[in-house]
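This part of the workshop introduces the protein records we will be handling. A record pairs a protein's sequence with a compact description of its fold. Comparing a sequence with its tokens is the quickest way to learn the format. To make this concrete, we reproduce a full record directly below:
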Amino acid sequence: AGSMLGAARMTGANFNGAVLREADVRRARLDGADLAGADLFHAALDFSVMRRARAEGANLSGARLTGGDFVETNFSRADLSGALATGANMRGCDFLDARLEGADLRKAILTDARFEGATLKDAVMPDGTRAQ
């Protein structure tokens, strides 16, 4: 079991390179937080607000991001393989060279998101189709 940080207000917090595997961060406020290189393997971030945060190179594989607000967060080079992000607001996010294999993005808002170089094999897209 991981850390319990649910519903905490951590706006602008520095978690650069932190190990938060399986952490419970549901409903947390992480606007502008630095999560670059952090290990959030199987973390629960459901319904969290993480606008304009830095998550470059973070390990979010198997993480739960359901219903969260991640507007303009930088996920470049992050591993989101197998992540559950149904209904998440990811407008304007940067997924440059990110891994999203098998991620579930059903009903996610991806307007203006950038996916150059990202791997989306077997990801479920917002409209329910599976990426090739």
Q: What stands out?
A: DSSP finds no helices and no strands in the chain. The mean pLDDT is 93. The radius of gyration is 13 Å.
